[in-house]
Amino acid sequence: MSITPTSPPTSGVAPNFTDYDGERSRFSWSAIERRLGPAPGGCNIAYYAVDRHDCGPQRDKVAFRFVGPNKGAGELPVTEVTFGDFAHRVRKFTAVLRGLGVGKGDPVFVFTGRIPELYVSILGALRNGSVVSPLFSAFGPEPLATRLRLGDAQVLVTTEQLYRRRVEKIRDSVPSLRHVLVVGDAGSITDVPDTLDFHSMMVDADGDCDITPTCADDVALLHFTSGTTGTPKGAVHVHGAVATHYATGLFALDLHPSDVFWCTADPGWVTGTSYGVITPLLHGVTSIVDSNEFDAERWYRILEEQAVTVWYTAPTAIRMLMKSGPELAHKYSYPHLRLIASVGEPLNPDAVLWGRDVLGRPIHDNWWQTETGGIMIANTPGFAIKPGSMGRPLPGIDAAIVRRTGDGGIETVETPNVEGELAIRRGWPSMFRGYLHNDDRYRRAFAGDWYLTGDLAKRDADGYYWFVGRADDVIKSAGHLIGPFEVENVLMEHPAVAEAGVIGKPDPIVGAVVKAFVSVKTGWNADDALRRELLGYSRKKLGASVAPKEIEFVEVLPHTRSGKIMRRLLKARELGLPEGDTSTLEVGG
Ligand code: AMP
Fold first, then answer.
1. Three state DSSP letters for 421-462
2. 390 in contact with ligand 1, CB cutoff 6 A
3. How many CB atoms lie within 10 A of CB 193?
């Protein structure tokens, strides 16, 4: 089954991308780079996103509408920031960093909610040639400290509340940290020792500070992603990625200057940075930022009140909206909505159709990951959607289904509908350029010309890709990638825990919930009190988005003969599935 695209009659715009084969054959990355033009030094994301728009009528156009907390009746409160005002603040933040002696290549981390200062800090740091890493504000102290240490953070921008709750506890464990800038909860900060007041520094900073020249290969962003073993991996991205951000904004998100665009992802995740910050700015469109967490009615209200035209969201959110029932959706109307796209987890065909039937637009699934830096495969408004498929590779992107041959090589699978690993041909501009401090892991991610994504997929005879699953044990919960190892480590720090094995337990709404199997040390009772204690303990250390939701006590965990916990087997047992090949299982596991 497929859904043929149509534009709502009121939209008045034609899709950017309708001729799939023609556009792919005409396409070149250098043409996109020419369209962006030269920047000081060659290429700088902030130059294209900010400086370029600080002139003419564009200066007075609204860049961001920050939607604040609900205040009873009436429309939701909104704070608007124009492109001109934003550019001024960004230049000031560049000056703040420069004044602190923070320069090109120095790592600047941002750990705040979705407040204007987050956006100013990201762009101001990019403009300064510094390397930016936004971290998710729901992280507990452990994931926060791990990432700051791995990334050799020199500067951290955070809020007063997060400083007191999370940062203060771990600050001493990050020796590289030179400056902590704190955004006061109510204006300037009071009584937060050894920190700098973000706002007073901004007041004194030079609003005309120039940009640091950078080139396409200079490092711009650091995004952490989870693996099955070891600490999180820091994926390194360069300024040249901007060509992908721009092109995908054109082809996959179909951005037009008149659009009101809402990306619901938090900039603490790669989607929120690439598409919640950079891409809408590149295209000079007005972007919605919601400061609050998910709330079905609030989201419908935002779509209506803000007259959102292009909406980029995630399957978990869509399923939660579906669960809240059609009546709630029908209390509001969405005549302006032209395109809905979704990413991060498999999007069930029901959800695609729900979009069409309830919101008036089908949902366009697309695929990418932290390492790819931008959308690679998509259902776009220019061609028929096959519900359940991730779509087709965008112009400039070559994808393949491959099989590893065992000698480090691969062979491509040409027959349609045969499962293999999804691979992307090297060379797209937003390809990650390394895993921080882990060259070996980076090298192993490639075979010849191909980047191996770790996802299993199939391609059908029409060239559409279909997601099958992950080739490894990482967990996708509510769209967030969670490394089981990071969770197991924290559990094992608890004095009662002998061993822990963590899996994703399938869940109809969030895709998978984190479930831990725990064996306890002698002398401890594996009872409800201990379970509650461990749940609370991991929540405090890891934060609610990463901590396990379920804990099951077991006598022993299954191990391989080499001592690794067999998570695959835990999962098979949990689901009542065949245990598969257990020849490497240690006797007694
Ligand atoms: P992250 O690096 O956190 O963005 O997670 C990337 C992973 O999310 C991919 O490797 C996939 O496993 C999963 N993913 C992303 N988009 C999709 C999609 N459209 N369908 C299925 N899985 C997806």
1. EEEEECCCCCCCCEECCCHHHHHHCEECCEEEEEEEEEECCC
2. yes
3. 5
Tokens 């998100």: give the residue.
253
Residue nearest to atom 1 of ligand 1 (CA): 369
> Could you tell me the CA-to-CA distances from 438 to 38, 231, 374 in Å, in that order?
33, 11, 22
- Cβ of 33 closer than 6 Å to ligand 1, yes or no, is no
CA dihedral sign of residues 158, 160, 166, 170: positive
- Answer yes or no: is the C-beta of 233 below 6 A from any ligand 1 atom: no
| Torsions phi, psi for 305 (to 5 deg) | -65, -35
Atom of ligand 1 nearest to the CA of 453: 10
- Separation of alpha carbons 456 and 403, rounded Å: 10
Instruction: Supply the residue whose CA is at minimum distance from atom 9 of ligand 1.
Output: 369
Contact 184, 198 (CB under 8 A): yes
Taken in order of first residue, the domains within the chain and their CATH numbers are 20-459 (3.40.50.12780), 475-575 (3.30.300.30)
How remote is the CA of residue 407 from the centroid of ligand 1, in Å?
A: 27
Q: Is the CB of 512 under 6 A from ligand 1?
A: no
Ligand 1 center from residue 479 Cα (angstroms):
8
527 CB neighbour count, 10 Å cutoff: 11
Q: How does DSSP classify residue 274? A: I
Cα of 368 vs centre of ligand 1, distance in Å, is 6
- Residue 473 has a pLDDT of 85
Centroid of ligand 1 to alpha carbon of 321 (angstroms): 20
* Ligand 1 atom closest to 390 (CA): 19
Rounded Cα distance between 57 and 304, Å, is 26
CA-derived radius of gyration, the chain: 24
Spatial neighbors of 512 by CB under 8 A, at least 6 apart, are: 475, 476, 477, 504, 505, 506
DSSP 91-145: HHHHHHHHHTT--TT-EEEEE--S-HHHHHHHHHHHHTTPEEEE--TT--HHHHH
Per the DSSP assignment, residues forming a β-bridge with 446 are: 451
pLDDT tens-digit readout, 525-537: 999 999 999 999 9
- C-alpha 500/C-alpha 491 separation (Å) is 7
Each residue's pLDDT tens digit, 157-201:
999 999 999 999 999 999 999 999 999 987 777 778 899 999 999
Say yes or no to pLDDT of 444 above 70. yes
499: enclosing H helix or E strand: strand 497-507
